């Protein structure tokens, strides 16, 4: 009886211990803004544009979760800033939906396109205005204005 009880307790403890020590995947590392783990993965051959089953890239996950260090690292490793998931959303659209002005600015610096259209006909700018993310809408408008001015100066 004692042996059986001991065996059951040992199994429960071992299972709980293994569960708590479960290795997290790279998408979890991005969500947790664990740039050390992400850097190790990227330096070991992980592609910066790796996507999950929904077509969300690592950069989109970083954008969804406010993982700034991860986003910067991914961009430095060549992540495509304008990649689209199955719904046609981009990392910039994800940042806009969250109202994350800092992430939107980071993505704009990496040349994120505000005019890409998703599967329901929205752009990052229309999302910003439709969801009353006025700071982000202003950021987009200023970016477009600076781009127009640069084109005029180049002529």
TrEMBL record:
Residues 1-18 form the signal peptide. ANK repeats lie at residues 54-86, 87-119. SUPFAM superfamilies: Ankyrin repeat (SSF48403). The keyword Coiled coil does not apply. Keywords: ANK repeat, Repeat, Signal. InterPro entries: Ankyrin_rpt, Ankyrin_rpt-contain_sf. PANTHER family: ANKYRIN REPEAT DOMAIN-CONTAINING PROTEIN 39-RELATED (PTHR24171). This is Uncharacterized protein. It comes from Filimonas lacunae.
